[in-house]
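hey can u check if this looks right to u? its 287 residues, i copy pasted from the old doc so theres a chance i mangled smth
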Amino acid sequence: MAKPAVSGLLKNTYLSSAIMKFDGVDFGLVSGVKISNKEMTTDAHTDQIGKSLANTFYVGQEVQVELEMDEYTVAKMKQVYPNSKLITTGPIAKLTFGDSIGQNYLALAKVLEVIATADDTTNFGHYWKFFLAAPVPEATIEMGPGKQVKIKFKFKVYPDLTQVPGQWFGFMGDPAAGTLVPSSAAAAVPGGGNVGNGTVTGLSTVDLYTKTETWTMTCIATAVNGGVFSVVGSVTGARGNATVGSIYHSNSIFIANSELSFTINDGATDFALADTFTIATTAANYV
């Protein structure tokens, strides 16, 4: 019976045979592929229930890919070990190894693609793409009677924060699947007891940073034809103050990273203390 092309759980996936591409270069057939996806968590406890577990929170992720290269050459080795030095003399070549202390591997990270094969046919149902993967210097070469010469090595995967949340590390499956639904902000809803009749306009979000939550703006200082509102996200938390008549950005230091931007406009009747607006935002997502 043929060995299945793919086995294991999502946490640890094993491919008996696959094709690897790194930075667009096709490295041909690889085997012994293990894709590890570990979610890191921290447990929460409260005094009221002693040592009993109260909750568990996601705090990060660790992704790495291990594989064996069946079809390797000195030139291909140079591609997966960019810190090595390729020395050529006419048709012959050699590769030297040795990294510099303090080497920044994130700077070396490239796109890694692993495509499971079944009878040498590409199976996009088991296509893996990692946006920022870097080979780490843990290579092993096995040689001996009855053994095919192979090189084993490992990639560490880093989050690509230019991708939408939920797809920072990469994805599995057909790359053509799914449609990106951009982040959005619903129209601001004034509080039922508002005295002022101003409005909120110019709402904008950023796919990478906007979360699904409710923002509340509360008038904390009044002025003729003006005022100041505190701004709090139900998930993001307090995000400073918005001044009536001025554009507000939830990230005043890095404006492009703002979860929400808007302008509170003065109306015919000035705002009073405790006047409010609420805005519901929705994070970007694939459907």
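Helices lie at 74-80.
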